[in-house]
Amino acid sequence: MWICMVYNETDTSVDIRLCQDFSLILSVSSLIYLLVCFPLGLCYNVLLVVVNLSNKVSMTMPDVYFVNMAIAGLVLNVVAPVELLSSTFTYWYAWEYNNEVYITLLILFNISSLVIMYSTTLLSLDYYIERALPRTYMSSVYNTKHVCGFIWGGAVLTSFSSLLFYVCNHISTKMVECSKMQNKEAADAIMMFIGYVVPAVAVLYAFVLILRIRKESTPLDQDSARLDPSIHRLLLASVCVQFVLWTPYYMTLLVHTVAGAPGHHSNPQYLNTYYFLGCVSKLLAFSSSFAMPLMYRQMNKNFSNKLQRLLRRLHCGGQSCPHERSTVQQVVT
């Protein structure tokens, strides 16, 4: 765990007890996550990706975005055990990693967070387009797949500041130039603005448009029924859950950007609380990797049918089952 910050003898017992309480809470929470949430998230994310990719013909625009978020969730599933089993999170740590591993984990974490937040944001905007202009193909599955590719590319480019920090750790010369790039406050400010403020404003704008179009009756309303009505509830739930789980992490970035590095403060209680809340916020962010696929599994009515089709196809040896071929012949005739 982090080193308990104590500066005078009068505060020693209180601060050490507070630090020990924080450490115990964080250790137990990390253990519960690794034993319960991690395997659930891993299984459901893999299931979400495999089921939808095996039924590409029946995929809709929301399915593409949720597959994108599930892939980002799998990246978080890779990062989570490495961090939660380190000395930063638990008493019973399995390893301690160096700065290079830390920066690599930070880059993967930032990329996943950006992909999740922007997939949620663009899902909201595309849902409005689908409701407002149902006869167009601006929010088609084909276009959405390309948009998701741009999301990953943009997330990698946005994490470039962390990549520069990673490269600078391997450079022995020109350390003056590298030290200028190792400005964590600036990197956190960029992540706060691009990863949270922009998606929050865009989601709010999309919801205002969606509420407006739901109040107004248009001649195209009958065509908007091609969207599953459960998608609206799934959209609302996913946006709320994502922002609830990710807001604490971005608030810690805001505090770090405004107040500076925690080492600038001499109050040991502030330092211990700061590190504890930072770890808790990251644990909540990791929780999005299992909350989202579970919600998709429960609220998407078509998922069960797709899963049953996949299981029947596996039972038939990867070929079309007899009842599926008869269904196709009936549709053709």
TrEMBL record:
CDD domains: 7tmA_GPR146. PROSITE patterns: G_PROTEIN_RECEP_F1_2. Residues 44-296 form the G-protein coupled receptors family 1 profile domain. The keyword Transferase does not apply. The chain crosses the membrane at residues 31-53, 65-82, 102-125, 146-167, 189-213, 234-254, 274-296. InterPro entries: GPCR_Rhodpsn, GPCR_Rhodpsn_7TM, GPER1-like, GPR146. Keywords: Cell membrane, G-protein coupled receptor, Membrane, Receptor, Transducer, Transmembrane, Transmembrane helix. Its main location: membrane. It is found in: Cell membrane. SUPFAM superfamilies: Family A G protein-coupled receptor-like. It is a multi-pass membrane protein. GO terms for molecular function: G protein-coupled receptor activity. GO terms for cellular component: plasma membrane. This is G-protein coupled receptor 146.
